[in-house]
Amino acid sequence: MATETVTLTTAQAVVRYLNAQFIEIDGNRMRLCGGGFGIFGHGNVTCLGEALQDVKDTLPLYRGQNEQGMGFAAAGYAKTWMRRRFMFCSASAGPGTANLLTSAALAHANRLPVLMLCGDTFLTRLPDPVLQQLEHFGNPTFGVNDAFKAVSRFWDRITHPAQVIQSLPAALATMLDPADCGPAFIGLPQDVQGWTYDYPVSFFEERTHRIRSQAADASELADAVALLNTAERPMIIAGGGVQYGDAVAELTAFAEATQIPVVETIAGRANLLHDHPLNIGPIGVTGSDSANTIAQEADLVLAVGTRLQDFTTGSWTAFAPDAKFIGLNVGRHDAAKHLSLTVVGDAKLTLPALQAAAEYSAPKDWTARAQGERAKWNAYVADNTRVGNRPNSYAQAIGVVNDLCSPRDRVVAAAGGLPAEVTANWKTLDIGTVDVEFGFSCMGYEIAGAWGARIAQMEREPDAQTITFCGDGSYLLMNSDIYSSVLTQKKMIVLVLDNGGFAVINKLQNNVGQDSFNNLIADTPTATNQVAVDFEAHARAMGATAETVERASDLGEAFKRAVAADQTYVIVMKVDPYEGWTTEGHTWWEVGTPHITDKAGVHEKHLEWESTRERQRRGV
Prior knowledge:
Elements: E1 5-9, H1 10-19, E2 21-25, E3 28-31, E4 33-38, H2 48-53, E5 61-63, H3 67-80, E6 86-91, H4 95-98, H5 101-109, E7 115-120, E8 154-157, H6 164-176, E9 184-189, H7 190-194, E10 196-200, E11 207-209, H8 218-228, E12 234-238, H9 240-244, H10 248-258, E13 262-264, E14 279-282, H11 289-297, E15 300-304, H12 310-313, E16 324-329, H13 332-335, E17 341-344, H14 347-358, H15 364-384, H16 394-404, E18 410-413, H17 418-425, E19 434-436, H18 445-460, E20 466-471, H19 472-477, H20 481-488, E21 493-498, H21 503-511, H22 535-541, E22 545-549, H23 555-564, E23 569-574, H24 600-611
Parallel strand pairs: 2-11, 4-5, 4-6, 6-7, 7-9, 8-9, 12-13, 12-15, 13-14, 15-16, 16-17, 18-19, 18-20, 20-21, 21-23, 22-23
Antiparallel strand pairs: 1-10, 2-3
């Protein structure tokens, strides 16, 4: 019996396949791909654009303003759906695709599913060189799209229409794999997009996907049980993988059964509510005194769903030299870091198994000590965020919003000083409501990522707000998705906190003995015309409602107006670049300092920095 086929272009086949993929989430069946973001050019409009028009009701296409912003929005969407759904990004050949590199790197660092469908040069090479084509004289197959090999979990270039049958399922399998999850890149040469092939009709049958759940190996679990039973001062580090693995309930049950104190990474913020008695606070460079104090004393660290980056580990100085680690992770690479006892498995399955096998309970005095440290940290945060007769600060703005927002409102922050301030000062009101992008620390994610998050949020819980904290530097870098949110009626609240430049990097510059130089606008030698940006007027020009408040004491009423508004609302407030930083809760952090300099202050700081290195672990 002959296989039933249908004749389609490559582009039509790609779109039809994506349109037929579903996933089940909390008993609801929905499309795996929520749609896409696209900017059309000659590399994707004539063929891919033609195919996408036919599915505009089921795979909505959001018109981007900047390809990098599109990628950030897709990442924000994937985070909000806890990696269970994704969006695609379509860019034209040349600079359009090149603009996606940074956002692909963000998705790669954060292990987020983003599908990039990008134009490529002509496979036949008959019209070469075409507009925007890079020519490599010794390798005519090499081009811009090859740059994505470094920032993609899956990479392919379609050189024949039949390859779609193998490539698309492989890309989806990567994006849905808990251990290998990350961006997938598919290059689509302009001529191949329009070529036809007789595809099997069965390739386009609807399919419902499910996320794999992997149990730990019995021997690894037994070793972990044995080590846990020896612990006198245990601690759990809860990372973002806890939420992505749908293991928040299991983590909570494990912690409550064992009475082991829990600290959170930046990505793991909102694993536990702020007032849970075993939540000892955020750990690391942007953490809390409470978490970092017990980390220095813990004899066993159970790291769950974290990649243990330097802001979590204090560049590996945050722990006791003889502390033992158990790495519980779906990814072998992360589970095995720094000579951890490796447990490769899903936290949702493994934590209950570990709890049942160990029957362990932490010493009461250790748990009580951790809770006492958290109480002291809570008092510090209360004072740090208090609005009073002092200069405006990030912490005050965070405190005002935190006190007024609803539990399911989603808060977003990214590069600069705000990730540290949000991580340290935000009191989690509900699970999975905090998105601090510090995996790749991308300026510009704040607004674009919030737009993507808002699209997802309106699909899940439309009554909640999306709130993003943005510095003036990030705003100037990428603000056009304020306009995108207005066009698409995806309301978000944007707080623009203006400290006159790149103030957190200026702070680092000063901390290593250097004078302020080229970070604050006032200290930029070439900025001879000191013109202030009217952020309120700029936001209004893009269709948003906007206002400026002079004092943190006025921010509360402005935020209430923003919540009541039916469109994107921007609140602008100046904050002091020097005063009001969160000064407590930090660990040591490795930065490169000049080994030779004529500046006495810089040399003194270099010696001071190096003298504190002795706590750094040498594990690999």
